[in-house]
Amino acid sequence: MSLGDDGAYGGGEYGGQGPAGQTRTRLPGGEGDVYGTGRRPRGGMSSRNLVTIVGVVVLLIAAIAFANRGGDPSASNSSNPTSGAPAAQPTAPTGEQPVSGKKGSVPSGFPKTEQGAQSAAANYSVALAGDGMYDSEERDAIVDAVYTPSTAAARKESLRKVYADPKFLGRIGLKADGSAPDGMTFVSRVNPVGTKIEKFDGSTAKVAVWYSSLFGLAGEGSENPVAESWYTTTMQLRWVEGDWKIADLTQKKGPAPVGRDQAAATAEEMSKAVEGFGGFTYAR
Question: I need a surface site. Which of 17, 63, 96, 284 has the fewest CB within 10 A?
Fold first, then answer.
């Protein structure tokens, strides 16, 4: 907020002092002045003296304003009571700190709160859409970390049929073992934008996660270049063995924003970006 917006350093803030020309200044030698022996010149105060006095008063006002600004940290963040302008609001993120525990590569130990459920859902979305799902051992570890025990057992088999299917892997440009061709970088990454509690009763929660997804192969000659998509996944969570776990989930497309007129990165730039920028632990 600028000084002119909230009036914090305007004339009314410091006793209503007006321009310097309205400040009374008693000069030596005036009529009735016991300390002066001469009379005031007929032409009145010289222009040089007037300029000097005005300059001193202006500097004094500026010094008072600066002192008040530095001495009161809230001066620039609060509104002038007489201005009617709203107080400035903090822009730093609020909420609980990210969890410190992990189960394999997946964050764990989320609190039994609405924020904890939202954090769990965001992090589980990242894990379930990551490239780790294309490795059989890592996929099983991810499933055990995010699903309830009974759900995990069933999901492992159904996911194995999908991720181990050579036809599916071929369609997305991967080898039969789930690895990327030589000279290519496989990208499968989710970036949560926000979460929303749709239902919460303490031990169960229904949480929607809105996110963008980067998926494809980065490299010269890729027939499946990295593209962006938007989805919303809704998870049914249960509090099991001291943590939130997925009992069921559904996914739908969007909402997708309007694309900007921005040049796509080259294959080399995309590969370097994916390899150089790590992911996050998400907390509400």
Answer: 63
pLDDT the model gives residue 1: 38
Region 101-276: CATH code: 3.10.450.50
Domain chopping of the chain, boundaries:
3-71, 101-276
* Residue-by-residue DSSP string for 110-154: --SSHHHHHHHHHHHHHHHTSGGGGSHHHHHHHHHHHB-HHHHHH
For the ranges 40-44, 61-65, 184-188, the maximum mean pLDDT occurs at: 184-188
Q: How many CA atoms lie within 13 A of 235 on its CB side?
A: 28
Backbone angles phi, psi at 197, to 5 degrees: -80, 120
Res 227: pLDDT: 92
Give SS3 for 218.
Answer: strand
Cα distance between residue 98 and residue 103, in whole Å:
14
Token pair for 2: 């600028």
CA 191, CA 121: separation in Å to the nearest integer?
12
> What mean pLDDT do residues 99-122 have?
90
Helix-, strand-, coil-residue percentages of the chain, each rounded to 5: 35, 20, 45
Q: Are 193 and 211 in contact (CB under 8 A)?
A: yes
Q: How confident is the model at residue 99 (pLDDT cuts 50, 70, 90)?
A: confident
